[in-house]
Amino acid sequence: MKKLIYGGLFLALVGIGFAGCKKDNVVINKDKNDNTSQIKSEVLNIFNNYKKSTTFALKNKGVYNIENKNNPFDYVGYLHNEVLQFIMSADIYESSICDKISKVNMNFRVNIINDCNQLFDLCVDGVFKSFDNDGNFKSDLILNLLYKNRIDKNEYSIINTTFLNVNDLDFDSKIDFIKDVEEYTTRNSTLNTEQKNRILRTFAIYRYSSYYWEIENPQPIARGSVSSFADACAEYWALNDPDSPAQDGKDVYAFAGVVSAIVHMITNL
pTM of the entire structure? Predict the structure, then answer.
């Protein structure tokens, strides 16, 4: 049964490329603290500083500045990649990932989910809530957090607007755009410290995961971008959802690393 689920998931994802995003038509009710329209406009203004790529050719010649010293959670992205490197192998498969979960907990001194079947089910559900049948990004996973009142509308606007646009850029511009949104988040007066920290953690993982899948271990465009996007979504979801198997923020980077390996595996079936 799982093979059928994973196979169907692969067929849904195989056509995804960097230009696979649709406009977000979600209507969010206004209130006196709602600055979502302004935030969306300001993030899009940052995005417009970068030229959309049609070739996605890498501009650099082996030097990629993915670090952001202005993000106090930059180390979260680095640790995430350490977990990912620990799990990954040339012949990755379900049982090998399951075997390593307890070892991740022990080696990195974290406490993430040990039920591998549950973790695979979460990944499949999460991907189907993040992409439609045509392989376009959709906001269901993040919207659920908003509807459950787990996140603020303004926080949602920053995350969602970035996710909707970031993959229209080549790798170098993608990283720079994320860094610019991190700076914007830090300066944004509508967010409290906790909200800012969640966004900064998420984008740190997005930068480092993108480097892992697109540069360090390059994949076909669809698979690489899906895996790094899944990492960022997993981090953000796990920091906010009451059903998260990694409730402690310090452990979430490890959860996202395991999710990345699983998404890579199921999209390669």
Answer: 0.83
Number of domains observed in the structure of the chain: 1
Alpha helices, H only, 88-192 = 94-107, 116-128, 140-147, 153-165, 171-187
Residue 21, SS3 per DSSP: strand
Give the three-class secondary structure for 252.
helix
Tokens coding 137: 């990004």
**Residue-range definition of the domain harbouring residue 115:** 2-14+40-53+66-266
Query: Which residue type, as a one-letter code, is found at position 251?
Result: D
| Residue 76, in any domain of the structure | yes
Contact assessment for residue 200 and residue 182, using Cβ atoms and an 8 Å cutoff: yes
Residues 183-232 have pLDDT tens digits of 999 999 999 999 999 999 999 999 999 999 889 888 765 667 777 887 88
Q: DSSP label at 215? A: I
Secondary structure of residue 137 in the 3-state scheme: strand
Nearest to 178 by CA among 74, 30, 256: 74
In a domain, 188, yes or no: yes
Residue 128 resides in a domain: yes
Measure the CA dihedral 258/47/181/76, to 10°.
Answer: 20
DSSP conformational letter for 40: H
- The token pair that represents 50 in the structure block: 């970068």
CA distance between the termini of the chain: 14
Task: Find out whether 191 and 152 touch, Cβ atoms under 8 Å.
Answer: yes
Q: Are 80 and 208 in contact (CB under 8 A)?
A: yes
Q: Which two tokens stand for residue 52?
A: 């959309």
Is there a contact between 130 and 124 (Cβ–Cβ < 8 Å)?
Answer: no
